[in-house]
What we know:
Blueprint: H1 6-20, H2 28-35, H3 39-45, H4 49-68, H5 76-93, H6 95-107, H7 109-127, H8 133-153, H9 159-168, H10 178-181, H11 197-212, H12 219-226, H13 230-236, H14 240-261, H15 269-286, H16 289-300, H17 302-318, H18 329-349, H19 355-368
Helix pairs in contact: 1-2, 1-4, 1-6, 4-6, 4-7, 5-7, 5-8, 5-9, 6-7, 6-16, 8-18, 8-19, 9-19, 11-12, 11-16, 14-15, 14-16, 14-17, 15-18, 15-19, 16-17, 17-18
Amino acid sequence: xxxxxxxxxxxxxxxxxxxxxxxxxxxxxxxxxxxxxxxxxxxxxxxxxxxxxxxxxxxxxxxxxxxxxxxxxxxxxxxxxxxxxxxxxxxxxxxxxxxxxxxxxxxxxxxxxxxxxxxxxxxxxxxxxxxxxxxxxxxxxxxxxxxxxxxxxxxxxxxxxxxxxxxxxxxxxxxxxxxxxxxxxxxxxxxxxxxxxxxxxxxxxxxxxxxxxxxxxxxxxxxxxxxxxxxxxxxxxxxxxxxxxxxxxxxxxxxxxxxxxxxxxxxxxxxxxxxxxxxxxxxxxxxxxxxxxxxxxxxxxxxxxxxxxxxxxxxxxxxxxxxxxxxxxxxxxxxxxxxxxxxxxxxxxxxxxxxxxxxxxxxxxxxxxxxxxxxx
Length: 376
């Protein structure tokens, strides 16, 4: 076996560490120690920690680009099936790289844009049509998310079911009443009057973590903003991590409650799904800090984020229309994924200038899948 070069050993060491920890806590010395090399050798190849992190992101894009180039099939449906196998398989076989990229897409959004371009090119090859935002979100959002959740958390995902969803949709035969979906009558979340010390800490902590991120925010800043002593913080919370975990759960509860209280009666399953997407976008426009907190938590406290998404999945299982077959686990993960990537588009790229139109197009895909728009 050919001996690995020092540069390769440093990259492999970094992938190992960045996939198990978050960027801010990994040091150059730790990378070198893990690789069995001297600190001085690191700087022969890389300017700093960010440089090696970016090189790994380049590696991920290159590997995915090479993988999707292998999509094959005589028909669009055969090519779509091949594409699903490749994306799902990549997450299973390169889980550590995918974990690093998940942080990279958050820190340096230009890499997510570049990967999106790779996927859009693949969709163009599959469908023989230039994809728009809705095409991309339906074609990749659910597939990427479900594949990652399966690889990271062993969530049951069936590739045959993913193909069936992309081909024929999920909510067959259900109509869409646009007035119900996009009703502008919005009930805000209850406002806290005279919050106690614990509540003040959570309010100020949420703002600071949203503005500066977890690693760059310290407990002293939080207590100063809340008008409390550092000792008071430890009256309510064991550590900064436990405080952050509570914030993640709170964000999830607030988003779910906001959506729930603004779902009018009489919606069918499809209208409820689209109304939920619309309300999610509305909520993000009101509170832009919440999404950053959850996204950063994916690499700070991944177990808590699993709980966060599991709670949304449980909501789907609890709220089913009578007389209609319950959503299977793969469909639930798919729907969560479309919402997740719609959120990324709105928060980081802001490309759906007309979110309403995008949601309506997604509704059509949920009715008929790609078969309703493209020749499969």
